Structure formats: structure tokens, C-alpha cells
């Protein structure tokens, strides 16, 4: 395949030349040349076909479209477009393409963003090349691959955020208004007066809010609502 103008030169290299099963076609995306070269050698030794290398997120998006690899090994921190945004753009265009993220740090927020963007795997860079190869094979088969020490905490965080988002959606507009007035320091009578409803109705709304937010009182409800972005504090 001829190199594309302005992109990192592509390579189509594999350790095998027989007529057996086709090797997994792999694209490497990392802004560190030495790391890319080391990964390329290691992955070729394990039988993968390294079809290209990208130096930043923008090149990763372009090469994904040009080369259609089976799997992309994507660094999180890159110039131009970072790995998470590049993953999001690639998955929007090519939903079946599988992406394994590599990062120096196990940041929970980035972990959650990567999964939302469509990443199929997430590894820290201190893992072995055998672990990387295993993750590539796992995601190529349609499964998810995570560093063992990241799996439990990452999934718990994603589930917590998804649960909060779902809870936020079931809070009604009127309950949001009640919560905001409570957050502003209003009493039940004051909330009733401001919203032109009875105090009993305010209390009913509060009871519903407590149940939805798993809160015991106004303070817990307000804190949960602030964390979820439902209300704000002045």
C-alpha cells in the first residue's frame, strides 16, 4: 500500500506468510516514536499485521479511514486530538472497529470517558507486551479487555455515573424547582409561596425526591442533586 500524503508511513508487516487464518490487522497510535517502534516489533513477533502508525489523534482518525484496521492500539494522551476524542470520531464512522486504549495513569474519569467513546479495551502502559497482545486478540473477537487491576474500579465508576444520569432524568421539572429553592435556603412555606402550590404538595415532592436520590433529608438530597448537576449552589 502506498503511503498517504502527510501521514505517517504505513507498514504491512507480519510474522507469517502462509495461507492460514489472516492475522489481525493492527494500527498503532502513539506520539512517542520509540514506543511505537517497540510495540511494532513486539506485535509483529506475535503474529499481528501492523498496517500503520499514527503520531497523533488526527492521524489515527485519518489512517483508520484509509487502512480499516481490525484493531487500533490508541494512546490516551496525544497532541492535536487526544486518544479519547479520536476514538469517539472513529467509532462514529466505523462502529465495528475495535480500539484498545493505552495510558500512563488509571484516571477514573478518563476511563469512563474512554468507555463512553467506544473503546473496547483499556490498559496501563506498565503492562507486559503479552498482556497487550492478549487484549488485542480479545477485542478482535468482540469481547472487552481491561487491565485486571482496573476492571473492578472502572466498571463500578461507570455504573455509578450511569445510575446518577438515569436518576437525573427521572427527576421532574417541578421537583427540580423544589430542589433549587431548597438549595437556595428556602423553607417549605417559602417554597410553596414561590411556586404557588400548597405546603403539602411541597412535602410530597420532597418525599419523592428523597426516594429517587436515596436521601434521608434535605441536606443529603441537595448534595446529591448538586453532584449530579440538577441544582446549583450560589
Any key phrases for this structure?
53% helix; elongated; Rossmann fold; Arc Repressor Mutant, subunit A; 234 residues; disordered N terminus; 12% strand; 2 domains; 6-stranded parallel sheet; 6 strands; alpha/beta; single chain
Task: Return the CATH architecture of the largest domain.
Answer: 3-Layer(aba) Sandwich
Shape, per Cα inertia axes: elongated
Strand order of the largest sheet: 2-1-3-4-5-6
Specify the biggest β-sheet: 6 strands, parallel
Rounded average pLDDT: 84
Name of the top-level CATH class of the largest domain: Alpha Beta
- Terminal CA distance reads 60 Å
How many separate domains?
A: 2
Roughly what percent helix? Answer: 40-55%
Query: Tally of extended strands?
Result: 6
The CATH topology of the largest domain is what?
Answer: Rossmann fold
CATH superfamily of the largest domain: Response regulator
- The helix-strand sequence is EHEHEHEHEHEHHHHH
Rg calculated over all Cα atoms: 24 Å
Task: Chart the SSEs and their pairings.
Layout: E1 25-29, H1 33-45, E2 49-54, H2 57-67, E3 71-75, H3 83-93, E4 98-103, H4 108-117, E5 121-124, H5 129-140, E6 145-146, H6 148-170, H7 173-183, H8 188-195, H9 199-213, H10 218-227
Parallel strand pairs: 1-2, 1-3, 3-4, 4-5, 5-6
Helix pairs in contact: 2-3, 3-4, 4-6, 7-8, 7-9, 7-10, 8-9, 9-10
Quick rundown:
This protein has 234 residues and is an alpha/beta fold. It contains ten helices and six strands, in the order βαβαβαβαβαβααααα. Strand 3, helix 3 and strand 4 form a beta-alpha-beta unit.
Amino acid at each position: 500500500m502506498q503511503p498517504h500524503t502527510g501521514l505517517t508511513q504505513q507498514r504491512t508487516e507480519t510474522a507469517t506468510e502462509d495461507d492460514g487464518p489472516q492475522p489481525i490487522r493492527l494500527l498503532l497510535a502513539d506520539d512517542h516514536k520509540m514506543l511505537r517502534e517497540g510495540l511494532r516489533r513486539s506485535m509483529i513477533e506475535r503474529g499481528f499485521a501492523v498496517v500503520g502508525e499514527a503520531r497523533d489523534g488526527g492521524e489515527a482518525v485519518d489512517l483508520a479511514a484509509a487502512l480499516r484496521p481490525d484493531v487500533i492500539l490508541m494512546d490516551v494522551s496525544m497532541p492535536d486530538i487526544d486518544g479519547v476524542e479520536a476514538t469517539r470520531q472513529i467509532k462514529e464512522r466505523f462502529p465495528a472497529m475495535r480500539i484498545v486504549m493505552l495510558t500512563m495513569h488509571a484516571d477514573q474519569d478518563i476511563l469512563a470517558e474512554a468507555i463512553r467513546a467506544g473503546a473496547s479495551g483499556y490498559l496501563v502502559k506498565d503492562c507486559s507486551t503479552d498482556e497487550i497482545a492478549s487484549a488485542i486478540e480479545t477485542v478482535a473477537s468482540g469481547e472487552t479487555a481491561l487491565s485486571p487491576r482496573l476492571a473492578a474500579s472502572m466498571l463500578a465508576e461507570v455504573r455509578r455515573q450511569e445510575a446518577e444520569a438515569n436518576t437525573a432524568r427521572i427527576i421532574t421539572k417541578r421537583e427540580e424547582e423544589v430542589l433549587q429553592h431548597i438549595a437556595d435556603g428556602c423553607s417549605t412555606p417559602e417554597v410553596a409561596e414561590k411556586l404557588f402550590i400548597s405546603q403539602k404538595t411541597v412535602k410530597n415532592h420532597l418525599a419523592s425526591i428523597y426516594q429517587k436520590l436515596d436521601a434521608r433529608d434535605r441536606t443529603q438530597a441537595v448534595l446529591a442533586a448538586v453532584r449530579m448537576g440538577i441544582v446549583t449552589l450560589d
